[in-house]
Amino acid sequence: MAPEEKKEAEAAPVSMGSTSSGGGGGNKIVLILTLVNVIATIAAIGVVLLSFQNKKKAGVEDITTHSSPGDKKDGHGDGKEGGGEKKKGIEFGKMVTLEQFTINLSTPGSATPKFVRVNISLEVPNDDAESEVNQKMPQVRNAIIDLFNSKRPSDLATAEGRDYLKEEIRNALNSFMVSGKVRGVFFTNFAVAG
Fold first, then answer.
1. How many CA atoms lie within 13 A of 180 on its CB side?
2. Any long-range contacts for 103-112 (C-beta under 8 Å, 24+ apart)?
3. Which parts of 97-158 fold into alpha helices (H)?
């Protein structure tokens, strides 16, 4: 480039998409479109928030029971589609919280012992079963300790392994329960260490 051409290129103003008539109409259109976009976004957010405020939160009373066709009282349908009805008297069991367990796990051939620290809650159907669990607490704790002692750390590493252990605990406790059976076993805290 020659020195004269450089001076002319530097001196010439650069126009950004507008014609030399200097209307500036492009900037107004961008400003209007931006304002419309902001207003539409605020309106959409408002609609979403209002729709979520009006929704009722699901609760225990919303649980419905579905009966099978063989469960009809007189052998005929009641004319209602879906076959579901709200169950008024849902009974939840009593929860019995056991003291924390710290139990050695089975580690054959390993020099470092592993142990589990776990809090367990049991669900029982009624007050009689709850008092029976409390009266038989030494048997309950012994059965749980024996089951944990037979497990390796790898047995408890997966959710399936822990669920299987819960089922084993429930079956072991139900083998000596008389006034009610254990409905559920829940680990409220669970850690394997060693």
1. 18
2. 103/144, 103/145, 103/148, 103/149, 104/149, 105/148, 105/149, 105/151, 105/152, 105/153, 105/156, 105/192, 105/194, 106/149, 106/150, 106/151, 106/152, 107/152, 107/153, 107/194, 112/194
3. 127-135, 137-149
Q: Could you tell me the residue range of the domain that residue 172 belongs to?
A: 94-193
The answer to whether 107 touches 153, Cβ cutoff 8 Å, is: yes
pLDDT digits (tens, 9 = 90+) for 71-130: 444 445 554 555 445 455 667 788 999 999 999 998 888 778 899 999 999 999 999 999
Domain membership flag for residue 107: yes
Q: Give me the CATH number covering residue 161.
A: 3.30.479.30
Both structure tokens of 81: 């589609």
Residue 74, in any domain of the structure = no
Residue 55's pLDDT is 60
Any domain includes 64: no
Number of domains in the chain: 1
